[in-house]
Amino acid sequence: DKNYKIRYNSSSGGLLSQLLIFALEEGIINGAVITKMKRDNPLEPETFIATTKEEIMNSSKSKYCPVPANIMLDRVCNLRNKKFAVVGLPCQIHGVRKAEVVSNELRKRIVLHISLFCSNVPNFLATEFLVRKLGIRKESIKTIEYRGKGWPGSLTVELKDKRVITLPFSKYWDSGFGQYFCVKRCRLCIDHTGELADISLGDAWLPHIKNKDRIGTSIIITRNAEAERFLQRARLANKVDIQEIDPCKTVQSSTISKKRRFNIYASIINMEKLPKFNAELLKPTLHTYLDCITFRIGALLASKPSLWSLLDIYVFQTKCWSSLIQQIKKLLPRPPV
């Protein structure tokens, strides 16, 4: 995105916001199904159809909680002679595609499917965990924003008494929030990049970018010719700045790399309980089992608010062990190439 304000106040460069605004202004769509946090209940998400630039801007940034993206599909079907974009996580786009199989009206209305990269979705307890760590009451919160104010951004909580509390993204995500409050189904997911979307995008967690970028840059993947033409049209209109990247380098992104090894949890549980992935899971290694054990212990502590003080200790200890293991790996001789 070439608009500094949009980039700075978005999660990963504001590319999604700018593309939706461009599609709206060019008449490609009449509205976009997106999500915001409720004004009267700021800890609860609300999916709606945005029809103006202002509504899109006010709904930017990540929503780190479960989102009922399907509730707008009936309304989309009933709005005749209108065209829409749908924005969602890979699993939500999967659900929309399934719905389109049985609904011709829905298939006619949705002309653009955009997926956000996703490693997992924190459950609602995750935000309560953060609120408790910050020493505030849920009832005192006026607004909450999980990202924004540069990249990778900060959690910003505005209270009803006009106080504002901020917490850097890395500090709260690595507190257990992003690791152990994971929705269980996310541990079985092998699609972290929205392979059923027309366009997929998300944070560019690439080494040469994350060490110097403080505003935000996105990785974007177009999955069909029509999506590519739309992106190039936005570029020619000087709305976005695009640079091609070697597809092999994209696997360096922390989200995309998870696709390479599929899901550590899915590879070692009872196969009868797995969804039909139509893909071969990698064989589990010793590291796979250890990682799964680590997750299960952390998830157990995260599921019980009475154990959250122990979770803080557990997160600290696992970080120490992880750091020690990395140091040992650096000292070991590398095998010959």
Order of helices and strands: HHEEHHEHHEHEEEHEHEHHHH
Question: What is the tally of helical segments?
Answer: 13
The backbone outline, from C-alpha atoms, is globular
> What structural category characterises the helix and strand content?
alpha/beta
Q: Averaging pLDDT over every residue, what do you get?
A: 87
Largest sheet: 6 strands, mixed
Strand content: 15-25%
Low-pLDDT parts are none
How many strands?
9
Radius of gyration from the alpha-carbon trace, in angstroms: 21 Å
Give the CA-CA distance, first to last residue.
40 Å
**How much helical structure, as a percent, in the residues?**
25-40%
Q: Within the largest sheet, what's the order of strands?
A: 2-1-3-4-8-9
Task: Describe this entry's structure for a reader.
It is a single chain. The protein is an alpha/beta fold. It is 38% helix and 15% strand. The chain has 13 helices and 9 strands. It has helices spanning 4-8, 15-25, 53-58, 73-78, 90-102, 104-109, 124-134, 169-177, 207-210, 225-236, 257-260, 286-302, 308-331; strands at 31-37, 45-50, 84-88, 110-116, 141-145, 154-159, 164-168, 199-203, 218-222. Strands 2-1-3-4-8-9 form a 6-stranded mixed β-sheet. Strands 5-6-7 form a 3-stranded antiparallel β-sheet. A hairpin with an 8-residue loop joins strand 5 and strand 6 (154-159). The radius of gyration is 21 Å and the shape is globular. The mean pLDDT is 87.
Chart the SSEs and their pairings:
Blueprint: H1 4-8, H2 15-25, E1 31-37, E2 45-50, H3 53-58, H4 73-78, E3 84-88, H5 90-102, H6 104-109, E4 110-116, H7 124-134, E5 141-145, E6 154-159, E7 164-168, H8 169-177, E8 199-203, H9 207-210, E9 218-222, H10 225-236, H11 257-260, H12 286-302, H13 308-331
Parallel strand pairs: 1-3, 3-4, 4-8
Antiparallel strand pairs: 1-2, 5-6, 6-7, 8-9
Helix pairs in contact: 12-13
